[in-house]
Write a structure and sequence with these properties.
This protein is an all-alpha fold. Helices cover 73% and strands 0% of the residues. The chain contains 3 helices and no strands. The protein has helices at 17-23, 26-55, 60-92. α2 packs antiparallel against α3 (60-92). The longest helix has 33 residues, at 60-92.
Length: 96
């Protein structure tokens, strides 16, 4: 019986997790983390603005603008997340 060459290579399924983490590109994860942080900050600003409008410390127009910015950023992040998940599913279903 002859040996089949190339069967001793590590596949993605058997590669240890620390080795996979070393190959990972940190810029994508960092960008996602920054986007989520930015959306969170805008949500906090919108909440603070709503409180200030209620107390009469801020005009309703400024409060509505802050709320709209938070809503738009959240919708954008949700859309991007949906697109990333679609791409991930497509890659997973690719024949090897």
């Amino acid at each position: 019986m002859t040996r089949i060459d190339g069967t001793d290579k590590i596949s993605i399924m058997t590669e240890p997790i620390p080795n996979r983490l070393q190959r990972r590109d940190p810029t994508f994860a960092q960008r996602i983390k920054e986007a989520v942080s930015d959306v969170n900050d805008k949500q906090h600003i919108a909440n603070d603005s709503a409180q200030k409008v209620i107390k009469g410390e801020m005009g309703i127009h400024e409060g509505m603008i802050a709320g709209s910015k938070a809503d738009t950023s959240l919708r954008l992040l949700t859309t991007v997340r949906g697109k990333v998940m679609e791409a991930y599913k497509e890659i997973i279903n690719m024949p090897v």
